[in-house]
Amino acid sequence: ESNLKVTGVDFLKSQNTRQHHTDGYNIKNLVVRRGQAFQVQVSLNRELRAADKLSLRFGIGENPVKNKGSLLSLKPEREDFNGWKISVVKKNGKECLLSVTSSPNAPVGKYNLHVKTGTNIYKPENGVIYLLFNPWCEDDVVYMANEAQRKEYVLNDTGYIYVGSAYSIYDRPWNYGQFEEFVLDACMYLLDKSKLSLTDRRDPANVSRAMSALVNANDDSGVLLGNWSGNYINGTSPMDWIGSVTILQKYYKTKKPVRYGQCWVFAGVLNTVMRCLGVPCRCVSTFDAAHDTEENLRVDVYLNERGEKLNSLSFDSVWNFHVWNDAWMKRADLPEGFDGWQAIDSTPQEQSQGLFQCGPCPVKAVREGDVYLPYDSKFVYAEVNADRVYWVVKKVNGKEKYYKVGTETQAIGKNISTKAVGQNRREDITREYKYPEGSKEERMSMQRAYSFIRPSGMMPRSGYASTIQTLSGSTQPLIPKEPVTKTGLHLEITNTEALHPGNPLEMAITVKTTTPGNWTIDLTGSCQLQYYTGKVQANLGTIKETINLEGTSEMQIPLKIAPDAYMKTLSSLEDEVLILVTAIAEVKETNDKLTKETSMRFEYPPITVQMPETAKLYNDFTCAIIFKNKLNVTLENCKLLVEGLGIFKMTTFDQGDITPGRIMKSEIICTPTRLGEKKIVAKLISNQIKGISTEKAITIT
After folding, report:
1. Which residues are noted in the entry as Ca(2+)-binding (predicted)?
2. Does residue 314 contact residue 390 with C-beta atoms inside 8 Å?
3. CA 586 from centroid of its chain's CA atoms
4. Mutual orientation of helices 377-385 and 440-452 as an angle, nearest 10°?
5. H/E/C letters for each residue in 179-201?
6. Is residue 390 reached through a cis peptide bond, with omega within 30 degrees of 0 on the bond before it?
7. Does the structure show a pLDDT above 90 at 453?
8. Residue 95 CB partners (closer than 8 Å, separation 6+)
9. Buried residues in 23-57 as b, exposed as e (16+ CB within 10 A)
10. Contact predicate 86/56, CB 8 Å
11. Which is the catalytic residue, given 240, 326, 345, 575?
């Protein structure tokens, strides 16, 4: 009687991947999701008989062993092994069709499949199977019930990241590219590098925390090196990326950190990694996000007597925007009520348990003020809820003294944004993170949070603590209110003309009073250029005026900056800058003080893409990218970056200088290699402009 031998294994890839929503992955191997059946066809040298011993062996890791749970031996007659099931679907001569269902909490990763018959072991070609989280499976902790949400948060490989300032939000198209070549392998490499135990690999909370650490290079030579210095000579400027694919491919190839990232790049890459592993994930942008190093729910801003912000004194900062991620999961490790979105952040800001990692922190814990829950909920709470306190530093008898000129209790954590499900628009999700300002729920949530965080008294916190004047009322009330002044003083900052590089910057500060009486108001205003992290790069000009207002009235004070005052700085910086306007108003009669700041972004002429609405698979088509320089300045050293997932590999084209009025037209030939809706993303960069982006969709049939 001849020994039973396996002659071949067919992984039925096209059928399995369609059912598992993994047909997008650009990889030879079979990719399946846990907790869901897939089929394999085994060919034998003879018919399978009742007495034959046949088993499928799935091994994970270096040396899989049964008692560690890293080797699973599945026999058709023995149903269940560690929550895995196997059955014979049908026998047809020498062919045997088997169905395998992994456990819905199986460790994710790469499994080696061997088929054992008696004492023979058959090792199939491409026998490594990739097992991912499964948002389609009700028993998986990442289960997401809504199909439109799964399409967006798991399967969409493009999107937008919202940046700018609360005053002017704009979208940056971003290619996540979780299905591109080597991206899944890069994620598997990160999983191995994380040194997570097999048990930890079952739980998306542990996996997402590990990934938040590994996407930055700080402790573990992870994917991206952060750099906010303004000097990117030996790498790629953070502004020059338009997606995660190039970054992850380069990292996988070199196994060395890729230079350089800033917050939206870290968030874009972490979003790719989580979606690639099967965890629903979205990029979340918060405007005016506090980076509160002491977790005392307060950020101090120091101004000089001209009303200009000083970098040197601040330990904390308010970032114009900060981008992190929300990952979707049930939290079995927490009390009930904290399932759903969890904030994770891979930008290296603060260490958590000795590593630069952040989250997962339940978004509901932030809203409810339950800031004792793991992980890092105090830090995330402070990012969206801190107060901003303004101090003017004055020299008195050669000593520096600090005068408080304003407190804002509702200025931090505004317009929290993500891309809407199934639509190319911004969705405001602030309500998921915070109750409405001033509501009863907000007050209760704040009292809860304050019972776990000890906010400090109202003392300025800088290197000069010894020279501080003691302020009256040095303890903070539990529920800070917006300061109500005797004069009903109110400040507004706007731009009166479009803010085009090369033109004068024309802005205005509007001072309003709403109470009867004659008021004399000293107004100080300043204009500066700053990075999105709040770091000032240049002082452009100041104004000082004394105005008289009576009763309910207002006055608009212009603030105008000539092009010569800022163009040189603008061209020499590697990063995008924002225009920061700060105003301080002091009422002589009542000693009321009020400070307000607004950040605005430069406005640019558009870049457009022309191409057909549809194209056929593997049939070339032409795509034209057009830009007209409508500014009054020459754009120097222009570069055009173009990438279209499944249609055009990321390429950079040098365009030289584009003089005012000149039209740039670039034509590229695209070859579609995948079906469905695909997008071309284009971005123009120059010395003067750090990024005008656009995108256009095409349907491949």
Report:
1. 385, 387, 437, 442
2. no
3. 39
4. 130
5. CCCCHHHHHHHHHHHCCCCCCHH
6. no
7. no
8. 41, 42, 43, 44
9. bbbebebbbbbbbbbbebbbebeeebeeeeebbbb
10. yes
11. 345
Residues making up the chain, counted from first to last = 701
In sequence order, the 6+-apart residues with CB closer than 8 A to the CB of 317 are 290, 291, 299, 533, 534, 535
Q: Answer for the pair 60, 70: CB distance below 8 angstroms, yes or no.
A: yes
Q: What sign does the CA torsion over 616, 620, 621, 625 have?
A: positive
Report the sign of the C-alpha dihedral through residues 254, 258, 264, 266, in that order. positive
E runs forming strands in 93-242: 95-101, 109-117, 120-122, 128-132, 158-165, 168-175, 224-226
Which has more confidence, 71 or 486? 71
316 is catalytic: no
Q: 432 a known binding residue? A: no
CB 566 within 8 A of CB 582: no
Tokens for 390, please give them: 């303004």
Q: Taking residues 134-156, what's their average pLDDT?
A: 98
Average pLDDT over residues 288-317: 87
- For 500, counting Cβ atoms within 10 Å of its Cβ (0-12 exposed, 13-18 middle, 19+ buried), the class is middle
The pTM is what? 0.95
In the predicted structure, residue 66 carries a pLDDT above the cut 90:
no
Q: How far is CA 129 from CA 32, 40, 117, 154, 361, in A?
A: 7, 11, 20, 20, 31
Rg for the chain, CA atoms, rounded: 29
Confidence of residue 350 (pLDDT cuts 50, 70, 90): confident
Domains defined along the chain, listed by start:
6-132 (2.60.40.10), 150-452 (3.90.260.10), 489-601 (2.60.40.10), 607-700 (2.60.40.10)
d(CA 420, CA 362): 20
pLDDT of residue 79: 65
The set of residues, in sequence order, having a beta carbon less than 8 Å from that of 159 and lying 6+ positions away, is: 173, 174, 176, 271, 283, 419
CA atoms within 13 A on the CB side of 81: 19
How far, in whole angstroms, is CA 130 from its chain's centroid?
Answer: 26
Closest by CA position to 453, among listed 352, 385, 364: 385
Distance CA 662, CA 630 (A): 8
Structure confidence at residue 467 (pLDDT): 32
| Helical packing angle, 263-277 and 183-193, nearest 10° | 90
- From the candidates 322, 326, 358, 361, which is the catalytic residue? 322
Strand, helix or coil for residue 659: coil
| Residue 154 DSSP class | I
In terms of Cα–Cα distance, which of 244, 287, 320, 313 is closest to 575? 320
Render pLDDT for 12-49 as a digit per residue (tens, 0 to 9). Answer: 999 999 999 999 999 999 999 999 999 999 999 999 99
Encode pLDDT of 70-91 as tens digits: 999 999 877 677 899 999 999 9
What's the rounded Cα separation, in Å, for the pair 681 and 639? 14
Q: Which two tokens mark 448?
A: 């809860």
Whether the CB-CB separation of 310 and 303 falls below 8 Å is answered with yes
Q: Is 437 annotated as a binding residue?
A: yes
Amino acid at 619: N
- Establish whether 575 is a catalytic residue: no
Neighbours of 457 (CB within 10 A): 12
With a cut of 90, say whether residue 656 has pLDDT above it. yes
Note the maximum CA span of the chain: 111
Pairing of β 281-291 and β 414-419: antiparallel
User: What would the two tokens of residue 650 be?
Assistant: 């990321």
* Annotated active-site residue in 96, 263, 527, 638: 263
Q: What angle do CA 192, 149, 609 make, to 5 degrees?
A: 90
CA 578: distance to chain centroid? 20
- The answer to whether residue 322 is catalytic is yes
Distance CA 248, CA 565 (A): 40
CA-nearest of 613, 616, 621, 608 to 669 is 621
